[in-house]
Write a structure and sequence with these properties.
The chain is α/β, with parallel strands linked by helices and 350 residues long. It is built from twelve helices and 14 strands. The radius of gyration is 19 Å and the shape is globular. The structure holds NADP nicotinamide-adenine-dinucleotide phosphate (NAP). NADP nicotinamide-adenine-dinucleotide phosphate binds next to helix 1, helix 4 and helix 12.
């Protein structure tokens, strides 16, 4: 089968590099264009991009000349955006208007009523919002978003448990990796041997995005799930992997053994679709007393697996646990590829 040409916007950044590496051996998609800011355009990818990943430098793309983020210069039917929110707000609509399906990592459009905000295992049906989006905005293409990297991690537990029992309230404390702040991110003097108890705008994103993703689609919009979520987000000296500690109140106060069964028996919406970037297991329940840990467990399933551990009773909420996920794979590059694979499987792509 001929592979579909794709464009990567923000190809030089932390997420962009992971997209380029994942796309370098993808069975369905093939890189046609790499784009970045005015600072980089016209340069070789190998010169403009300080490669930070293992494996072949620049994933064999060092000679590719970086283009401006403009559909007239770099159009493909599929576009992966790893732009910061501000440039994404003006650039992504240009590609959608020109007919591209844009799979975005940025926060710019996530909470717009007609934009699908996807975790394919939990809400694959929300992709149908593309129709409302095209009707509302007159675009031939569309924008599809993946959530904030902390949101998807907590959904590893909250998603299956909300589906099984109904969730009423969650108190969430995140310990977020440094790579979540992009490159160069937090200065070493601030990061080393320290915890920074502020990530601008993060708590509001976590609290609202999870309710949209677990909401019901109807009449061209999502009715948010009525879950009260309170988040406290912290930056910790970990390279990759966000760990979330969650206290959770579930309807009917189910027993721990039933919660275990719901997590280990969870059937994702993507079952049977054989999507290339799907992990074998959406969420793995771990029984060791001191796992999961970012250093040891973050690469599970190619960075796409979410891991729940330390499941136990909570005197206030009913149940408490921790969840781990890879912020730049499950929380970014791998997530937007999975969204594109879902769109292809559902017939939204040429
Ligand atoms: N890091 C994570 O864990 C994570 C997780 C989920 C979502 N995200 C989201 O993913 C996006 C990228 O994050 P990141 O961590 O990869 O950031 P980053 O390392 O700072 O990279 C930003 C990229 O955007 C490009 N860019 C910046 N301003 C631009 C402009 N005005 N026009 C065109 N291109 C521009 C940069 O190009 P130059 O190199 O030319 O400056 C670079 O390629 C953000 O929206 C972020 O919120 C990140």
């Amino acid at each position: 089968m001929r592979r579909i040409p794709v464009t990567v916007l923000g190809a030089t950044g932390v997420v962009g590099q992971r997209l380029v590496r994942r796309l370098s051996n993808h069975p369905l998609f093939e890189i046609a264009h790499l784009c970045a800011s005015e600072r980089s355009m016209g340069k070789r990818y190998g010169d403009a991009c300080a490669w930070r990943l293992d494996g072949e430098a620049h994933a064999g793309r060092s000679e590719t000349i970086l283009l401006p983020c403009a559909p007239s210069k770099a159009f493909s039917p599929i576009v992966f955006s790893a732009l910061d929110a501000e440039p994404a707000r003006s650039i992504e609509p240009l590609f959608a208007n020109a007919g591209a399906l844009v799979f975005s990592n940025a926060s710019a459009f996530r909470m717009d009523e007609d934009i699908p905000l996807l975790v394919p295992e939990l809400n694959a049906g929300h992709l149908a919002l593309i129709e409302a989006q095209r009707a509302n905005r007159g675009w031939k293409g569309a924008i599809v978003c993946n959530p904030n990297c902390t949101t998807v991690v907590l959904l590893g537990a909250l998603g299956p448990l909300h589906r099984a029992f109904g969730a009423e309230a969650a108190s969430v404390v995140s310990m977020q990796a440094l790579s979540g702040a992009g490159w160069p991110g937090v200065s070493s003097l601030d990061a080393m041997a320290n915890v920074i108890p502020l990530i601008m705008g993060e708590e509001r994103k976590v609290e609202s995005e999870a309710c949209k993703i677990l909401g019901q689609l109807g009449q061209g919009r999502i009715l948010d799930a009525p879950i009260a979520i309170s988040a406290q987000c912290n930056r910790v000296p970990v390279v990759d992997g966000h760990l979330v500690a969650m206290n959770l109140r579930l309807s009917g106060s189910p027993a721990l053994c039933d919660i275990e069964t719901a997590l280990s028996g969870f059937r994702p919406d993507t079952d049977g679709l054989a999507l290339h970037s799907s992990p074998a297991c959406f969420v793995r329940l771990r029984h060791e007393p001191d796992r999961p840990q970012p250093l040891r467990d973050v690469e599970a399933g190619g960075g796409m697996e979410l891991q729940v551990g330390r499941l136990r009773e909570c005197a206030i909420f009913g149940v408490k646990l921790v969840v781990l996920g890879h912020n730049t794979e499950r929380g970014a590059a791998g997530a937007s590829l999975l969204n594109a694979e879902l769109a292809l499987a559902k017939g939204y792509l040429p």
